[in-house]
Write a structure and sequence with these properties.
The chain contains eleven helices and seven strands. The protein is of the alpha/beta class.
Length: 291
C-alpha cells in the first residue's frame, strides 16, 4: 500500500495532466484519470446545462454531482469550494452569493489554480479567489465559511477524517456543507483498489458509504443527510484494463455498489436548517441505522 504522501503525489501529477484534457475525454473516463470509454459519454458527472453562473470553459467534466444546487447559498455568504479545479462550482456559487459575498476555491494542483484564476479574470470577478493548498490542511482561517461545497474530491484524499475535521474548523457556527462524492457498498476487487489510475479516478480511494456518513457525525455535525444519490456504473471496456472477463462478470453481479452521493451537514451553533433532498435517505445519527 502506498503512503499518504505517495498517493497525494500520484493524484497531483495526474490532475496536472487532466487540467489540459477536454471535457468530453474526462467525462467518458473515471474522473479524467482512466482511458475514456468508447461506449458511455457521461460516467459520473451531472449536467450543468441551465445552471446560473455556469462557465463552460471552467467545466472539465470531473464532478459527480451538483452540490451547489443543494447548498442553499444566500446573498452575501462566504463559500469555500474544496478541490476547485478550473473554478466551475466557484463561479456557480458566486452567482448565488452576489457581489456582496465571497468565494474561495482551494486546490493543490498548480495547473488547476492557474486555469481557475484565468477563468476568473475572464469573467471580471473580484470576489472569487483561488488558494493553492491541501484540503486536509486548508489555507483558511477558523470560522470563515457560511457554506462549503465540493464535487468528487474527498475520495482523493487518503485521510478523510482530516478533511472532515477541516470542514468543521473552517465553517462558522451554524454554517453547513453540501458535498458530492463517490462511496462504496461492498468491496472493490483488489486489482481496482490497488491501481493508481483508479485511485485518481475517484474509485479506489472511495470508502464505504456507512463509514463516510459516520465520520461526518463523529466530527460533530448535525442534520446529516443524503440529499441525492445515484449509482455509478463503470463500463466494461474500462474495467477490462484491470480485470479478466470472468472477473468483470463477477464484479458486475457481486453486489458491489459504487454511488455518487451529495451529503449535507451543519455545524452546531446556529438555526438548524432543513437540507434540500431528492433522496429518501434522512439523518444519520449514531445508532439510528439509517446509514
Amino acid at each position: 500500500m502506498k503512503s499518504e504522501r505517495e498517493l497525494k503525489s500520484d493524484v497531483q501529477e495526474r490532475y496536472a495532466r487532466i487540467a489540459e484534457q477536454g471535457k468530453v475525454e474526462n467525462a467518458a473516463s473515471c474522473c479524467g484519470a482512466t482511458t475514456p470509454s468508447n461506449k458511455v459519454y457521461n460516467i459520473m458527472m451531472d449536467d450543468y446545462f441551465g445552471t446560473e453562473g455556469y462557465l463552460e470553459d471552467a467545466d472539465l467534466g470531473l464532478g459527480c454531482g451538483l452540490p451547489t444546487q443543494f447548498a442553499m447559498i444566500e446573498k452575501g455568504d462566504t463559500v469555500i469550494d474544496l478541490g476547485s479545479g478550473a473554478g466551475n462550482d466557484c463561479f456557480v456559487a458566486r452567482h448565488e452569493t452576489g457581489a456582496e459575498g465571497k468565494v474561495i476555491g482551494v486546490d493543490f494542483t498548480p495547473a488547476m489554480i492557474h486555469k481557475a484564476r484565468a477563468n476568473a479574470e475572464k469573467l471580471g470577478l473580484n470576489n472569487v479567489e483561488f488558494r493553492e493548498g491541501d484540503i486536509d490542511n486548508m489555507p483558511v482561517n477558523d470560522d470563515t465559511a457560511d457554506v462549503i461545497v465540493s464535487n468528487c474530491v474527498l475520495n482523493l484524499v487518503p485521510d478523510k477524517h482530516k478533511v472532515i475535521n477541516e470542514l468543521f474548523r473552517t465553517l462558522k457556527p451554524g454554517g453547513h456543507f453540501s458535498i458530492s462524492d463517490i462511496v462504496l457498498v461492498g468491496e472493490l476487487p483488489d486489482a481496482l483498489r490497488a491501481d493508481a489510475e483508479m485511485y485518481a479516478g475517484c474509485v479506489a480511494g472511495a470508502i464505504q458509504k456507512q463509514d463516510y456518513l459516520q465520520y461526518i457525525v463523529d466530527a460533530g455535525f448535525e442534520q446529516v443527510a443524503i440529499q441525492k444519490e445515484k449509482p455509478i456504473t463503470i463500463p466494461d471496456d474500462i474495467l477490462g484494463k484491470y480485470l479478466s472477463e470472468t472477473e468483470i462478470a463477477d464484479f458486475n453481479q457481486g453486489g458491489t455498489g459504487i454511488f455518487s452521493i451529495t451529503v449535507f451537514g451543519q455545524k452546531p451553533g446556529g438555526i438548524k436548517k432543513s437540507p434540500i433532498q431528492t433522496s429518501d435517505e434522512a439523518c444519520c445519527e449514531p445508532g439510528s441505522g439509517c446509514c
